[in-house]
Amino acid sequence: MGKEGLMAAKELKRLQSNPVRLERFIKSNVSRLLKSDLLAVLAEFQRQDQVFLCMKLQCILQLYDVGRKEIWYRPDMFFFRDMLMMLARNNKVDEANQVWRDLRSEEVLFDQHTFGDIIRAFLDNGLASKAMEIYEEMRQSPDPPISLAFRVILKGLIPFPELREQVKDDFLELFPDMIVYDPAEDLFEDQEREKDGKDDSGWSDPAL
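The line above is the sequence of Pentatricopeptide repeat-containing protein; the predicted structure tokens follow.
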């Protein structure tokens, strides 16, 4: 990231509590950033999980909109992948839905590897419903299915045995000569106890 990009990132974070000044700064300064600096600022805020800046105060989202107006802008699946995985880490389903609408309007297509990674990210953060929505998109994709993506998803579905059985059936239908190794039943029981503990206490020890 160049000097101008660093200065812009610092100022955007400083102005996050002042929407009017934030909007003014984006229009007057951010819109003039070089392509490389603009993308570097986006990547840095994604890395920092700055969802508040990204979606609520429209900081990164406005940067994204600025980028879309530039003649060099071309959407790619890696940008959308990183956005979705960041939102999954922060349990932001509504924002993920908005990003998904954007990528569909831009006619961006994920390959099967990327689908698997995104679905796994939502599963790992307990967002099974959204993960399965994306899984249905994956099943309808023109990209040929691959076994590795399914195995990544199946592993993420261990805490959700009923959903796992559905995906397992799809996997065996597509790849009848392959084997799925199921976890031991007591592992499912441990997962259920852990989920029940979270529901009862409202929190869980991240070290567990």
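Note on the example: The CA atoms of residues 154 and 167 lie 7 Å apart. Residues 185-201 form the longest helix (17 residues).
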